[in-house]
Amino acid sequence: MSETVQPAQAPDNPSIALIIGAVAVTLLLASLGQTIVSTALPSIVGQLGGLDHLTWVVIAYLLSSTVVAPIYGKLGDLFGRKIVLQAAIVIFLLGALLSAMATSMTFLIAARAIQGLGGGGLMVVAMTVVADIIPPRQRGKVQGLFGAVFGVATVVGPLLGGFIVEHISWQWIFLINLPLGVLALAIIAVALKPRGIRVQHSIDYSGFVLLSGGLTAFVLATSLGGNTFEWFSVQVMGLIVAAVAMLGAFIWVESRAAEPVLPLNLFRNNTFAVTSAIGFLVGMAMFGSITFLPMYLQLAKGVSPTDSALQLLPMMVGLIGTSMVSGFIMTRTGRYKVLPQIATFVLVGGLLLLATMQLDTPSWQIAVYMFLVGAGIGPVNSVSITATQNAVAREVVGTATAGNTLFRQIGGSIGVSIFGAIFSSGLAARLGDIMPEGGGTGSFSAQAVASLPEPVRTMVLEAFASALHPVFYTAAGAAIVAFGLSFLLEELTLATSLRKEPEAEINAEEAATAAMVGAPASVAR
After folding, report:
1. FRET label pair with 230: which of 43, 236, 263, 376, CA 20 to 30 Å apart?
2. Any long-range contacts for 76-79 (C-beta under 8 Å, 24+ apart)?
3. Which residues contact 21 (CB under 8 A, 6 or more apart)?
4. Residues 6+ positions from 274 with CB-CB distance below 8 Å
5. How many angstroms separate the CA atoms of 335 and 518, rounded?
6. Please, what is the Cα angle at 512 between 506 and 513, to 5 degrees?
């Protein structure tokens, strides 16, 4: 049986502030890993080539950080959160260093995958640390603050990436992680105390391998389908069959594992199931927008990498503002259900408006559209973690947090992959014979487009802008489904104390354990 987790003792205020600062730095580090690349992608493709594999620079990080998220929760229980966080940062920095050394797109993609192996741990373990020291009611405000940190990263990341690409070189978008990583290591060394007792757990290696393999096969299929291979080719269909088989085997293994990577009984918890589904769909929209908007601004509107990042500012203002406001609302009222309902409705509107963009769309209109998208994303991120941690038993808070993060990251990975396939196939169909012989799209960059004759350049840019419309329409469809799911979310009053258990269902094993020791289930926990 797993370790009975005792309620955390609330430390003094300076200690809490230092720990929250450590968590904020680690989240900033992981978030920058996701966002700093976006404005540099056209420059990277221009130097290394491989437009067909452009989205894999993003997907490699998202996919690897996604599949390792559940195992980090188990490693934290086994070895303590401090050492696991420190190891994750070191892996993250190693991947960043290798990314800066890349001489080909394949090398860069592999290095980004290594970087993601560390980034996945930063997200999950940091969020679990907060659940140990902050009561759910106050956690809403803290999660809103962390949502703002993520929003800052989405502003600073593309802006910093664009500035570095323009004035130094794209390699420095990865090297810039090194001093921040060292700072995070230093703060964690001071703020977090190592756990004195190690508890032997049974790690579900089979489940981890099957989940990783299934997700990898599925994302490969969606990325290669309609691009490198035909959708109904042997290669793509083989990947889809492999994905279904491995994910099916994963479910079978999880139902029998002593300590599963992702306990299936979590899906009987309404809050976990609904927020995970909404997070999956909103993750698709979020990473799709962040990936393709800078390309539109740089190529279709002709702005510099730095300016394209600056023009993302309205989206990030919306994300930061609504994330913090929703956190304060949760802390003040203890309620949260209405927040994802309003947010996803706004997100649908913003994405539909983005799907109408043309070459001559005024910049102020694009700014409004992006603000709405950001405003629709912000509350979902802060509500999901707070509501989930409040709705599950204390001993599975870490696993539930990892699961919630897992689905949001899966949504991002699959979303970028699917949107990349939609964009690439749409662009190829629209370009037709427009590009000069041998031009192709493998090195499609702002410089290549600028060198084209005026009539050809106009047609190419129109084709590029039109190819983005299906991307945003698809993202809007995902947001519509998320809006519908938000009405299924049950609302449980946020607990005001670390010792108070939430209004959550007690599974059969916990009830039996409580009965055996003659104590209430809440005490057995």
Report:
1. 43
2. 76/124, 76/125, 76/128, 76/398, 77/2, 77/3, 77/199, 77/201, 77/398, 78/198, 78/199, 78/200, 78/201, 78/203, 79/198
3. 187, 191
4. 485, 486, 488, 489, 490
5. 34
6. 95
Backbone angles phi, psi at 349, to 5 degrees: -60, -45
**3-state class of 313 per DSSP?**
helix
What residue ranges do the domains of the chain occupy? Answer: 13-192+259-494, 205-258
The answer to whether the Cα torsion of 104, 106, 112, 115 is positive or negative is: negative
pLDDT for 367 beyond 80:
yes
- DSSP result, 84-126: HHHHHHHHHHHHHHHHHT--SHHHHHHHHHHHHHHHHHHHHHH
- Tokens representing residue 88 in the block: 């994750």
* Separation of alpha carbons 94 and 106, rounded Å: 17
Rounded Cα–Cα distance for residues 119 and 214 (Å) = 20
Identify the residue whose tokens are 């002593």. 258
What string of DSSP letters covers 375-416? Answer: HHHHHHHHHHHHHHHHHS-GGGHHHHHHHHHHHHHHHHHHHH
- Domain 13-192+259-494: assigned CATH number: 1.20.1250.20
For 14, the token pair is: 């300076």
Contact 147, 320 (CB under 8 A): yes
Within 10 angstroms of residue 98's Cβ, the number of other Cβ atoms is: 18
pLDDT tens digits along 249-300 = 998 988 887 777 777 888 888 888 899 899 899 888 877 677 777 777 777 7
Distance CA 15, CA 375 (A): 32
Residues in the chain: 525
CA–CA dist 469, 193 (Å, integer) = 50
Residue 525, classed as helix, strand or coil, is: coil
Amino acid at 195: R
Give 209-264 pLDDT, tens digit per residue. 888 788 778 777 776 666 667 778 888 889 989 999 998 999 898 888 777 777 78
